[in-house]
Amino acid sequence: MVNALDMTSATTRPIKVLQVFGTRPEAIKLFPLVHALDGDSRFEGRVCVSGQHRGMLDQVLDIAGVVPHHDLDLMQPDQTLDGLTANLLTGIGKVLDAERPDWVVVQGDTATAMAGALAAYYRKIPVAHVEAGLRSGDIHHPWPEEVNRKIVGSFAALHLAPTETAAAALRRENVDPTTIHVTGNTVIDALHWVIARIEREPTLASGLAGLEARFAGKRIIGMTTHRRENFGEGMEAIASAVRRLAARDDVAVIFPVHLNPNVRAVMNDRLAGLDNVALIDPLDYPHFARLLDICTLMLSDSGGVQEEAPALGKPVLVMRETTERPEGVEAGTAQLVGTDPDRIVAEATRLLDDPAAYEAMARAHNPFGDGRATGRIVELLAAR
Ligand code: UD1
Ligand code: UDP
């Protein structure tokens, strides 16, 4: 029998939400939710980082001021998908047993998101999936992310879709429509936050001044690349396209190289020492926002960059065969170019040499959200 006192405590106990993440992009897209839950007395916000990434994760935790309650510190050099996944499942499982949250929140499609959600499902803890419903329709592009997010989508209790396109993809998979909500993508919330921080404290993003001076008068191409399906041949092809573009004397490439050894080995081997190419370590988020600001265009296979570049009106040539983010392409700010070096060079050259082609792409669009996704997610977590 429940007495009156028990009922009071049951209704006033804050909702315990455990966010589980482990890589740079997850941290960028979830820190606004960490901040929001910390400032809301309806919730007890908890954070478990897997440490799937180390340095690149810590860069985000530092700037966002997030101090995790649990850090599994799992990263191994050149880790394998199966070894990583096994460690994630057992590590996160122990944290869930200790914390017993009301909700587990995961973001996107990484191994941490998939294993975190699965460990919660094994304990019948409801999962809220941020950035739900992205689909390329090809299980090998991006690999293994397409399957990771489908796994989470098959049992999440709350599907937080960034766009109507993503929500429609979930409905096509017969997900209960009452559990699908279009919130916008929290990446835009994060971008607004970091831009406001830089406005208040410009030195947070002033570390590129030396490169900006070295490349004064040249047009900057910003680069990122890291997709597993591009390892080997794809990375070689991308490097050869960059070599050809950097042979122009009116262009410079600023390339913060992902810490994955499969990326670094190729890029160091093929691009180090070129006059017009700066191979640098991963930038923290304020400096990456600065790179987005000063560049003429981006060359990238990253998911997050496909969302940020349109928001800032920067054309992005997406070095992938397919995208689960068609909204940027439909808005005209992103273009799929694959990894064929001839195609990459031709499309970049067109943007550099044809002002009309450039102007047609370089318009700010926000198909991924209005910067208020986090608030919507908070209310959905509170309501259930
Ligand atoms: C992971 C995600 C991918 C996401 C990407 C974002 C999976 C399977 N992959 O890919 O979905 O788009 O992160 O960047 O979840 N490393 C470091 N320091 C770091 C980070 C990585 O040294 O801070 C090196 C390590 O050798 C590590 C390797 O990179 O083993 C690969 O990291 P991993 O997280 O497995 O793969 P990513 O390619 O980063
Ligand atoms: N990013 C960053 N520093 C860098 C490169 C990227 O802070 O040197 C940010 C970028 O702004 C975006 C995110 O990292 O928000 C993208 O991460 P990544 O490309 O590693 O992963 P993906 O988005 O492809 O999963």
From TrEMBL:
Gene Ontology MF: a single term: UDP-N-acetylglucosamine 2-epimerase activity
Keyword Oxidoreductase: no
Reaction catalysis annotation: UDP-N-acetyl-alpha-D-glucosamine = UDP-N-acetyl-alpha-D-mannosamine
Enzyme's top EC category: isomerase
Domain spans labelled UDP-N-acetylglucosamine 2-epimerase: 36-381
Source superkingdom: Bacteria
Enzyme Commission identifier(s): 5.1.3.14
Keywords: Isomerase
UniProt entry tagged with the keyword Isomerase: yes
InterPro entries: UDP_GlcNAc_Epimerase_2_dom, WecB-like
Matching SUPFAM superfamilies: UDP-Glycosyltransferase/glycogen phosphorylase (SSF53756)
One Pfam family it belongs to: Epimerase_2
Family: Belongs to the UDP-N-acetylglucosamine 2-epimerase family.
NCBIfam families linked to this entry: wecB (TIGR00236)
Protein name as catalogued: UDP-N-acetylglucosamine 2-epimerase (non-hydrolyzing)
